[in-house]
Amino acid sequence: MSFTKGYVNFSEFFKIAYNAAIVEPYANRFKILSEKGDREGMIKTLIQIPYIENIKIVESYRGKDNIKATELYRKNREIIAKDGIMHEETIKSNILIETLFKASVTSRLFLDALLDCAQTYYNSKAFVKCLKYCECMLALPESLYDKTAESMNDFLERRKACVQLERECYKNLKVSSSRDRNVRKKYSGSHNVPFGDALLSYASTIPTLDGKQHTILKSCSDAITLQFDEKRGRHLIATRNIKAGSVLVIEAPFAFSTNREALDRNCLHCHITLKLSNSVKIPCHFCQTVSFCSEKCRREAWEAYHQYECFIFDAFYGSHFEQMQHTSHLLLAYRMIISGFLSSNNEQINNNMEKNNIPFLNDNFLQHYVTTTIKEHNDLGTNEVYNPHDYRTILNLETHCTKMEPSINLNRAIEAIFLAKCFTFVLSKRNIVCSKEYFISLSVAILHHLQAINCNAYEIVENIYDKQTHVWVPRNVGGAIYPSVSLINHSCYPNIVRHSYPSGIVVIRTLRFVGKGTEILDCYGPHWLSEKKLSRLEYLWKKYRFLCSCEACTHNWEYPLLEKMNYKCKTCSNIIGIIELNEQHTPNVLGKQCSNCGRRIDIKKLKNQFRKSVEKRLNAISKMYEGYYQQALPQLLEHIQFIEKFFTVPNMETIKTQQCIIQCYNQFGCTSQ
Questions:
Q1: Alpha helices of 389-498 — where are they, by DSSP H?
Q2: pTM
Q3: Of 538, 534, 598, which Cα lies nearest the Cα of 571?
Q4: In 84-213, where does DSSP find H-type helix?
């Protein structure tokens, strides 16, 4: 990050601010306010520190560089002039794209590079890529080029060329002229676009909820509902018996961020990979840092958040914070405040908002919901609609403010003040001046968000296929806040699993049968298969401030398990006996009787059924190795249903089957090369 002369970078700012805050007269006062959970008091204490009060934010981003762009474009022309060989086509394309990212959007060079990108891909018969760059050209507003007649003529000529290229692409993709309009409409609004016999699929189709949509929990199926008690707080339970594989929640994030290492390989807006054969890289009109997969994503990102972050974007990726947390929690908190204050749910503010004003500047709205009452907290999701885009759902997320060490709250408060300074700097560029009172309210809200992120944020992931192990391995792309998903409590033996889809959408499915009245449980990180009980308890207490009492912790399950399974009475679930998994011959035992209800079970029949069911899992694995995950999944779900019906947990067969089911879901969500 860069500051004007006399100012320091953010890492030094944080260090100096922290060192000033841990000595008197600020240290003890902050500690008392932290223990009370008085966010406003904490912020007011810190902004009294002269260094913090006087620090100024300036632009900190990689702007356009027409000199470098011109050098690259000249290099590309030299390659074109030669008798090229096949691999030089890729070199040419890469240089053109780099030129496009560096050139100013108002320059003739940008128009030339954009048209050349489209023409290059048309010549190589990559018609889909050509269409995407044509779309960029056709979306450019004339107002960018109406300063001179020469500039406007350059623009109109290149746009005319793109119209012709677009027409030729549709013709080559065998789309009749009568369908052009419908195809273009689908093309601009979806990642799955039919062109004749071709299907451009960047990710699997997002599934639908099982059952009806919940009337109050808008992201959830009516198979679950919200309850509240003092011990577990807000939590979700099953309203009916739910079979394995059911889709319970489909939710778009309230706000999301992107990890630094993913900025070049994933779309900033929808997070799909830019490495697929039909993908392209579209630049921001003002910075070189971020990439988009389409003009649609670029436009939506700009309107929703990027216009408020573009010119200070480098501020969110300082090395100090990358060591503290993998995802950019600074950017996530910043976007949460943008999403909240620009939310259409803030109708009482939007109706009175003047043009170019920002809704949050009505301080009464923010103060009312930051101090929301317990009744309002409980009504959301029970008697009042729980909409994931409602800012109140965010302000009601758990923060553990009073339980956190003062040093942690101090870190977050300094971050909050910095982000508030960033946002007010951006607003000042729009001639919006924020008073000190507004700045304090903004800082308080951001502090709330930073604290909520610590115990409510989720990873956005894409899955990478390992050809040697035949396993889809998750890789973090960013982080997100999901208000409905945050209602789900933890278990070290969860009954649901989460998967990321384009645009940060999360899909939650059941991993096993969930009986009516049973709580829906997620895993916050430590799973009993990979972590010992004590390390799980330590992690959960330190990060989330609760002592886990799930089934795995209560009974102290440990992995690996013995090669045997307890079979149970399907009437009363009482354990009847044991099956040895490595046993070669079936013992001459015809049956056993349940000591609890008297029901008899045919052991020989059960073991034969078990072997046949295991064969389904093995057959499903063969299908998975061949890439037929859709065909493998029903066999896996049928097998786990059988295991759950006759055997107790934990057991190896359930574990193996659940891992296979998760692999199928990994392939259905966001994937990359």
A1: 391-395, 406-428, 436-456
A2: 0.89
A3: 598
A4: 88-102, 108-123, 127-139, 149-172, 180-189
